[in-house]
Structure formats: structure tokens, C-alpha cells
């Protein structure tokens, strides 16, 4: 089954404790993105990647890092999480520019 | 930058037709997406418009006017399961995508 898998689905952590949210897709897609979704603000793109070792900032990259060492994986790293990073996070992939994006199930992160 | 506007909420009756509008102002434009998102779930793709005009896909149609910076999503024969948020998104190069805040549609009997 074609899918995008994020882990964990839910995470509560403390300020400053580094964490990684994993994202993996099994569709051999070149393009992958990370979004955060907040009430009243909609989905905002954090980072995106056009291929292995090619990444670029979206609209809200501050406080986040990504890497794309393999085509299937695109982890999101929060080196020092803060409460304003409490949000619902989605990973997405698509096989080409302008094609439909497939979203993961979401990760609800709470930073206390 | 990108600025996308869509109504926050709409209510429509089962069996009816509803039109959800989206206006955008962008520094670069490649195409416009519509996604559906049920509460607590991930967005799912509905349509992608690049050229002006109407694209029909079953009960859903999407229209784009690039010169006016305007799009709409038309839902026909509304069903209760169509109650969801509808997200308009503009892509302006590579995979940089900007979403509107979404329109929450409630379908009532």
C-alpha cells in the first residue's frame, strides 16, 4: 500500500530536549515537505526537498532542521524545542512538481 | 510573498450545490491545489489547476482565472460526508507551497 508514515503520532516533550520526527514514503517520490498546522493559520510549509541532499526553506523554517540522505526518508529535527512549536505536523510527498501530495497521518507535538 | 484568502466557514444543505472561493496574490504562480481535510485527519488531494478554466471530476469541479487571481471549488449533490475543511494552496516554484487557512464546510440535513 502506497503511504507516507510519520512517527510518533503523539509526543509530549519538555523545552530544550532535542527530538526527531521521522517520515518515510514507499512511493519513490522525489519531493517531500514538512508542514505545521495551527488553528487560524492553516498549513504552513517548514522545509521541502526536491531530491536526495537537496533541501530548501519554506515559510517557517526557524527552529527546525531537516535532512534527506535517502530518497524515502525526510526526518524533521527540533534541536531545542520551545512551547511555540507545539503544533500538528504533517509530512507530505509527491512524485513531481505540481502533482498531488500524499500526506502522513500527522504528529501532534506538545512542548511544555 | 503569497497571500491567499478563503471564507472561514460555510453551511450548505444536503443535496445542494456549494461554491467555495479562493483569491490569491502571489509573487510567482505555477498552479493551484484544492485539498479536503476531515477533522483530525490528513489532507487529501482534490484537484490541481494550471490553466484557466473549469476542470470537472465527478461531483467536484475546480475553476481557475490566473488573470484575476481567483479560483473556486464547486461541490454538487452535497452529501453529509462532504463536511470537512477545504484548503486552497498555491505553488510558486519547485515545491514551495502556500496554503490558505481553509474553509470549514458544514453540510446539514
Concise structural overview:
The complex is a heterodimer of chains A (112) and B (109). Chain A has 112 residues and is mostly beta strands.
Record keyword descriptors for this entry.
heterodimer, A: 112 residues, mainly beta, 7-stranded mixed β-sheet, 4-stranded antiparallel β-sheet, 11 strands, 0% helix, globular, B: 109 residues, 6-stranded mixed β-sheet, 5-stranded antiparallel β-sheet
Task: Provide mean pLDDT of chain A, rounded.
Answer: 94
Structural class by secondary-structure content of chain B: mainly beta
Q: How would you sum up the global shape of chain A?
A: globular
Describe the main β-sheet of chain A briefly: 7 strands, mixed
Elements of chain B, N to C (H/E): EEEEEEEEEEE
Helix content of chain A: under 10%
- Discrete helix count of chain B: 0
User: Biggest interface and its residues per chain?
Assistant: A-B, 27 and 22 residues
Q: Give, in order, the helices and strands of chain A.
A: EEEEEEEEEEE
Largest sheet of chain B: 6 strands, mixed
Strand residues, percent of chain A? over 45%
Total number of helices of chain A: 0
Number of strands of chain B: 11
What is the rounded distance between the termini of chain B? 40 Å
Helix content of chain B: under 10%
Total number of strands of chain A: 11
State the assembly state of the protein chains. heterodimer
Computed structural class of chain A: mainly beta
> Nearest-angstrom radius of gyration of chain B?
13 Å
Amino acid at each position: 500500500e502506497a503511504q507516507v508514515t510519520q512517527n510518533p503520532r503523539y509526543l509530549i516533550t519538555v523545552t530544550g530536549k532535542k527530538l526527531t520526527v521521522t517520515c518515510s514514503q514507499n512511493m519513490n517520490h522525489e519531493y517531500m515537505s514538512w508542514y505545521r498546522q495551527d488553528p487560524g493559520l492553516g498549513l504552513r510549509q517548514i522545509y521541502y526537498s526536491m531530491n536526495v541532499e537537496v533541501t530548501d526553506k519554506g515559510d517557517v523554517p526557524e527552529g527546525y532542521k531537516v535532512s534527506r540522505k535517502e530518497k524515502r526518508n525526510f526526518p524533521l529535527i527540533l534541536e531545542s524545542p520551545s512551547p511555540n512549536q507545539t503544533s500538528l505536523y504533517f509530512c507530505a510527498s509527491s512524485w513531481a512538481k505540481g502533482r498531488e501530495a500524499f500526506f502522513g497521518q500527522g504528529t501532534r507535538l506538545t512542548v511544555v | 510573498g503569497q497571500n491567499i484568502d478563503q471564507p472561514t466557514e460555510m453551511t450548505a444543505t444536503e443535496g445542494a450545490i456549494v461554491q467555495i472561493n479562493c483569491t490569491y496574490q502571489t509573487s510567482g504562480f505555477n498552479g493551484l491545489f484544492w485539498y479536503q481535510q476531515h477533522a483530525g485527519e490528513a489532507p487529501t488531494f482534490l484537484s490541481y489547476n494550471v490553466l484557466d478554466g473549469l476542470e470537472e471530476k465527478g461531483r467536484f469541479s475546480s475553476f481557475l482565472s490566473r488573470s484575476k487571481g481567483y479560483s473556486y471549488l464547486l461541490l454538487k449533490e452535497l452529501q453529509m460526508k462532504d463536511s470537512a475543511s477545504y484548503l486552497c494552496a498555491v505553488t510558486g516554484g519547485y515545491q514551495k507551497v502556500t496554503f490558505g487557512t481553509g474553509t470549514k464546510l458544514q453540510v446539514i440535513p
